[in-house]
Amino acid sequence: MSKNIDLKLFEKEISSSKNETLMEIKKRALDKLKETGIPNKSHENWKYTDIARPIELVQKHLTNKINEKELNSNSSAAAVDEIDAHWINLSEISLKSELSINVEDVDISISLLSTSKENFDIQINDPISCLNALLIKDVIKITIPKNSSIEKPLGIIWTNSPKQNDFCNNLRCIVDIGENSNINLINIFQNEINEEYFINSVMEIDIEKNSNVEYLKIQNFNTNHHSIDRCLINLDTNASINFNNIDIGSKLSRTDVEVNLNQKGARASVNGVYLCEENQHIDNHIWSNHLSELTTSTQNFYGIIGKKGHCVFNGKALINEEASGAEANQYNHNILLDDDASIDTKPELEIYTDDVKCSHGSTVGQLDENALYYMRSRGIDLKTAKTMLISAFVQKILNLIKITSTRNYLDQLITTKLAKL
């Protein structure tokens, strides 16, 4: 069970903030956290995921048990070298005023909440976002102007050189995409830190009317890490996102994706692959919130779970009364490689209007024994045969990723992971 933190420790954190705007956000976050409490397994959305250890690391961070040893970090160097993209390292940004960078004749502005004249409206309406807001050092906002079209993907990476007494890191980024734009985004979460560590990140993406976004998130932290990532997406009229999530690393990984289809014609496809090795826990919670007519959402997640691995999939589509003509589909398919592997899967629909098209389903099974027998009879060894079948299975999702410059990197990443399963 997740332990509670002495919330008085956060009051010291708030008082140490030197920025008035950040201080007010932290105060609101603490008030909300007092209402909701720290998530534990008695909460419906957390019944299969125990975050006791990440919360202990937060407690250590707050009580400042000092060890000044540098943590070895190789971070995301491989991704930067191998994926052709316009890379922005958010951890290296230190601004006294707004920064503008020119990418393919598009002026992208980057600003910090602490120094910006603009008021940032950040989400603090759930426990994890509240915890994140209480511990952030700042909020980074990336603004892409209207009528932007960038051919090469915009890559966002987080790298840092934390001290061991940090124990955790809390990241917050807002991406605002203007109307009539076409953007490819890559978000890399990867760090070769060997020590135990907790990353709590929140990404907010606002997509204005008639804009299209391809989004790829790759989570490949060291297996000593604990990772919780929340992504909140708001879609305007005829806006769309193709969201693809690749979960490979972390001892514990939790991904929450909330998509608000706010206006007519908004479309969201949320897809994922998770590869879970021994003693890993990977949890995906997806919520598509249909708030207007003729909106469309799809959730499609495929999982491979090895010995003593445990995964969770909860996909929900909420069709509100105003969402006539909406279409929502949810699918979750899993292959268990061992008797000790397990999955808790729950695709669900909540519908408040009659004029809809909806479907959902999930499967849990093993590798096809007949296919394995056939391949072995043709001289293919068992391990290779299994790898070929698994690769074909996850390829169904990888084919949905339209950012082609990531293909070789992903193939290498997944091949390396499959060798461990």
Task: Report what the structure shows.
With 421 residues, this protein is an alpha/beta fold. Helix content is 21%, strand content 38%. It contains 8 helices and 19 strands. It has helices at 8-15, 20-36, 52-63, 77-82, 127-135, 369-377, 382-398, 407-418; strands at 86-89, 99-103, 106-112, 140-144, 154-157, 168-177, 182-189, 197-207, 212-219, 225-235, 240-247, 252-261, 267-276, 281-290, 296-305, 310-319, 326-336, 342-351, 356-365. The protein has a 10-stranded mixed beta sheet. A hairpin with a 2-residue loop joins strand 2 and strand 3. Helix 1 runs antiparallel to helix 2, helix 2 (20-36) packs antiparallel against helix 5 (127-135) and helix 6 (369-377) packs across helix 7 (382-398). The chain is globular. It starts with 7 loop residues before the first helix and ends with a helix. The mean pLDDT is 91.
Helix content class: 10-25%
The helix/strand series, from N terminus to C terminus, equals HHHHEEEHEEEEEEEEEEEEEEEEHHH
Which class best fits the helix and strand makeup?
alpha/beta
Shape: globular
Major pleated sheet: 10 strands, mixed
Distance between the termini: 28 Å
